[in-house]
Amino acid sequence: MTPIQKYKLQQLDGGGRVICEQLPAVRSVSLGFWIGSGSRHERPDENGISHFIEHLLFKGSARFGAVDIARIFDSFGADINAATAREYTVVHARFLDAHLEEAFEVMADMVVRPAFAEIDQEREVVVEEIAMYEDSPADLVADYLVQAVFGDHPLGKSVLGTVPVIAGIDEPRLRRYHAEHYTRPNLVVAAAGNVELEQLAELAARHLDGAGADDAAPGDREPPPAEPAPRACFYEKDTQQYHVCIGGPGLPRGAADKFALSILDALLGSTVSSRLFQEVREKRGLAYSIYSYASFYADTGLVGIYFGCRSESVEPVTAIVREQLQSLMDDGVQAQELERAKESAKGKIVLGMETTHSRMSRLGKLTVTGSEILSIDEIIERIDAVTAEDVARVARRFYDPARLTAVAIGPEMGVFDAAAAELGGNRNLSVRACG
Q1: 3-state DSSP assignment of residue 182
Q2: How does pLDDT run across 371-413, given as a tens digit for each residue?
Q3: pTM to 2 decimal places
């Protein structure tokens, strides 16, 4: 399968878009219904409603019951699933090309005409999911960093929502939110595999009736928040390890420096040869898990570093993180190190394009979020163009320890006090109890 992605995009009459990459050499189709609505588009009193609706789409539609949906896709030998993020919701499936028409019909009915059945039963499922997440501190601490960086802005809210809010969402509220956000102008149908754009457009015209008014606007979003003052937040929990996240605001998805930041991420902590992994885990054995990451949104972003370790290692690991960040800002990167990070990034991109699902997901996500769709060759060219000075510049802009926020989950705040002082250096980064 060639890594070069050739796609076709069509605007539908009445609103909505269809985007398709035809791959005649395969026998499968990956299909996704992407809605430009996620937790970022929710009001405070409905936080989590996008995720709740995602669950309820599987409980039946106007024409197909929950058991019907399960049996139909099982009979295809297919995978069907869904996900909610901060800026979108997606229902997706992968199946044999012979089942395209029936799969499209069922998925469209789920998305456009949900029955909103079994609301109370599914509410309990969502509450259990929230409880499961809260029992996973390695995941939960990343959400706490988002909250600390974005504050009361909708981007700072949990995608899952909170138990009190979920408990208070009734059927009229669900139907109203669905009618406001699941509209044709806010919908992208994406596919990759043995399928033609004309097929997809014809199916969309046939099955998307009722998906909102033609002039319905896509989900609104608040402007990004102003950069916050650095802070340190501690969440007390009886855990065996301390789970720490350090980070701050990042770049929007379409920023020119996105590729330099991605290369910096690979150098810093997102690969096994990265500085943090080698210094903390391989050389000193201070942590099992340590990594960096970058999240890109429509108009802002987030950078972060995570590690989990025992109490006696929290301060020394924080010191190593600070040393490595300072080194990147002051000393930059070596040519061999930079080349290795570039080749790693290019390899991951090309290897990630070897399934119809990954190709469909890339097209759908970029289209529904209004992002530029670059060819693989264009992406590789931009990666190759990143210089050592570019990496040092974005490190100074986004990873200056003096501008970073830190959050932690663990049993005793005093342990984190010492780590925050180490990160803060000459500034006073006082820890406050949160939660």
Answers
A1: coil
A2: 999 988 999 999 999 999 999 999 999 999 989 999 999 999 9
A3: 0.94
Identify any residues that bridge with 296 across adjacent strands, giving them in sequence order.
301
Residue 435's SS3 state is coil
How many Cβ atoms sit within 10 Å of the Cβ of residue 98? 12
d(CA 269, CA 267): 6
Beta bridge partners of 173: none
Domain that holds residue 101: 8-207
| Contact assessment for residue 29 and residue 191, using Cβ atoms and an 8 Å cutoff | yes
Residue 56 in domain: yes
Report the number of distinct structural domains present in the chain: 2
Amino acid at 353: M
What is the tens place of the pLDDT at every residue in 135-181? 999 999 999 999 999 999 999 999 999 999 999 999 999 999 999 99
Residue 262 tokens read as 């991605």
Question: Distance from first CA to last CA of the chain, Å, rounded?
Answer: 49
Residues annotated as part of the active site: 54
Write out the DSSP string of 81-96.
EEEE-SS-EEEEEEEE
